[in-house]
Write a structure and sequence with these properties.
The chain is mainly α.
Length: 150
């Protein structure tokens, strides 16, 4: 076991367990937020495991998850809009913490891999992960001003 795998284990143990608990218990608002933050927990762990095991295919999986995770949250937000309208979910502290964790992991991996195609893929994955989760969290907490239905 190396440091990358240990970091992924710690990250999945903390973030994954918290997200799993949030998805399986509580009101709809907490479940939707936890579903959004599941992407923020699993995607950086996949990136760390990719470096730890030397498997670049895990980066592709993380890229796909970073792209589809927030889209799934927006679909749930649309389908559960009546339930979410009564009580607007808000977890900005948790959202920014998860975004910061994703940024730290991406920067550390970019430094470890050095310049090249892999670094560009890591930066794109990080941008999709952070941007997508922030947009999905904003949509959950009340939407965007001036947008019809949001």
């Amino acid at each position: 076991m190396n440091g990358w795998i240990l970091a992924a284990t710690v990250e999945l143990g903390g973030g994954g367990a918290a997200a799993l608990w949030g998805v399986t218990t509580g009101p709809v608002t907490r479940r939707v937020i936890a579903q959004n933050l599941t992407t923020s927990a699993v995607c950086p762990a996949l990136l760390l495991l990719s470096q730890g095991y030397g498997r670049p295919s895990y980066v592709d999986l993380a890229l796909l998850l970073a792209l589809l995770g927030p889209v799934g949250t927006l679909v749930f937000a649309r389908l559960l809009s009546d339930d979410l309208e009564r009580e607007r979910p808000s977890a900005w502290g948790l959202t920014w913490t998860a975004a910061g964790l994703g940024a730290v992991v991406v920067v550390a991996l970019c430094v470890a891999t050095g310049p090249g195609r892999a670094t560009v893929k890591l930066l794109v994955t990080g941008a999709l992960l952070i941007g997508g989760n922030l947009i999905a969290a904003r949509a959950l907490s009340g939407g965007f001003q001036g947008v019809r239905g949001g």
